[in-house]
Design goal:
Elements: H1 3-29, H2 36-43, H3 47-53, H4 57-81, H5 86-103, H6 105-111, H7 130-146, H8 153-173, H9 184-197
Helix pairs in contact: 1-2, 1-4, 2-3, 4-5, 4-6, 5-6, 5-7, 5-9, 7-8, 8-9
């Protein structure tokens, strides 16, 4: 291996360590307490080294959120491909989204700005709208299959996204005072009623 390749590999390793350390700190202390100094201490480098790789904390958060959206996108596609009918696909996609949120709460909170500022300064990637796009596709196909007006698909799919995201957000951010009925059963009933309404 040449000197250039060795240096490149070392840079990639340090960059990966920065992201891994930031995510580890977020899991133990929360995103709001994350700082460049803490990340530097965690990887045993000086803060200027971290700044060599990332302009600021927001750039690190954005990079980590991209990883989260990519992972979510893969899970949603896997769920969709297991089923043939749009009704089954819609249910599976919502279930996969729900499961991702509660298996990966740190990712989810960062990705959707729960309890913190959203990161990324409006930079959008295809994966960011993956859930909404897949819900729309299933909703459109169900409406078309039922002979209803396909122009309603956009409005209806947005309403379902809002309901699902809202329920997850409530459960994540207000665990102490939400009713015990706010759980997966509520989600399942919401999706079932939504499909019947199309």
């Amino acid at each position: 291996m040449g000197l250039h390749e060795r240096r490149q590999r070392e840079k990639e390793s340090i960059r990966a360590n920065i992201l891994q350390a930031a995510f580890g700190l977020a899991k133990t202390e929360g995103w709001a307490s994350l700082s460049m100094r803490k990340i530097a201490d965690a990887i045993e480098y000086s803060a200027p080294v971290v700044y060599d790789y990332f302009e600021n904390k927001e750039a690190i958060l954005y990079e980590i959120s991209l990883n989260g959206f990519h992972s979510l996108h893969i899970e949603l596609l896997k769920a969709q491909r297991k089923h043939d009918t749009p009704e089954e696909q819609l249910t599976a996609i919502v279930d996969a989204y729900w499961n991702f949120a509660f298996k990966n709460p740190e990712y989810y909170q960062l990705m959707f700005g729960l309890g913190m500022q959203c990161c990324g300064k409006g930079q959008m990637k295809e994966e960011f709208s993956s859930f909404q796009d897949l819900i729309y596709e299933c909703t459109y196909n169900i409406i078309k299959k039922n002979g209803s007006n396909p122009e309603n698909a956009c409005h209806m799919s947005h309403a379902l996204f809002s309901a699902v995201h809202g329920l997850i957000s409530i459960m994540m951010m207000r665990t102490a005072d939400i009713p015990s009925t706010m759980n997966k059963t509520t989600l399942d009933e919401t999706v079932s009623a939504f499909i019947k309404s199309l």
